[in-house]
Amino acid sequence: MNNKIIIINGPNLNLLGEREQSQYGSTTFEELKEICLDKSKELGLIADFSQSNIEGEIVGLIQDSRKNFDGIIINAAAFTHTSVAIRDALSIFKKPIIELHISNIYKREEFRQKSLISDVVTGGIFGLGADGYILAIISMQKLLQNEN
Ligand code: DQA
Q1: Which numbered atom of ligand 1 lies nearest the CA of 76?
Q2: Nearest CA to 83 among 60, 106, 58, 102?
Q3: Where do the domains of the chain lie, and which CATH numbers do they carry?
Q4: Hey, whose CA ends up nearest to atom 1 of ligand 1?
Q5: How far is the CA of 92 from the centre of ligand 1 (A)?
Q6: Per-residue pLDDT tens for 92-127?
Q7: CA 43, CA 65: separation in Å to the nearest integer?
Q8: Which atom of ligand 1 is nearest to the CA of 11?
Q9: Edge-to-edge strand list for the sheet holding 46-51
Q10: Most buried residue, 47, 73, 79, 112, by most Cβ within 10 Å?
Q11: For residue 121, how far is the Cα from the chain centroid?
């Protein structure tokens, strides 16, 4: 079965619902987790939803995903703009990857307008709020289905 996915969230996303609601909305991290797990289940996917504030832990999650998961959805948060290590780990993962951002990073400060991972992922979603996670799960399910 090609149906195991991991949704990886980077630094400060654990504070969703509390941090900068004008950028990230009012859905809390726990609510988002429930929404994602429900949607995944509905689509026949087995999903893991994780978050870390630590770059090396995210690199470890991506490395371990090579064995444990068929696809990665990643909101690398601030590390999107800084982490060569996360980029390199993603490029070793030879299965579908969706990059996700809640806000439109291309409409924000200049330092956010550069993603170090966009050119090593399958595709991306940005600026659509927490709904972006649902759209990413739907797209991932299609990508995995097409591989079968
Ligand atoms: C973010 C955008 C990043 O620039 C920021 O550092 C985040 C969240 C987003 O989801 O819009 O923490 O990835």
Answers
A1: 13
A2: 58
A3: 6-147 (3.40.50.9100)
A4: 77
A5: 23
A6: 999 999 999 999 999 999 999 999 999 999 999 999
A7: 20
A8: 12
A9: 46-51, 4-9, 71-75, 97-101, 123-126
A10: 73
A11: 11
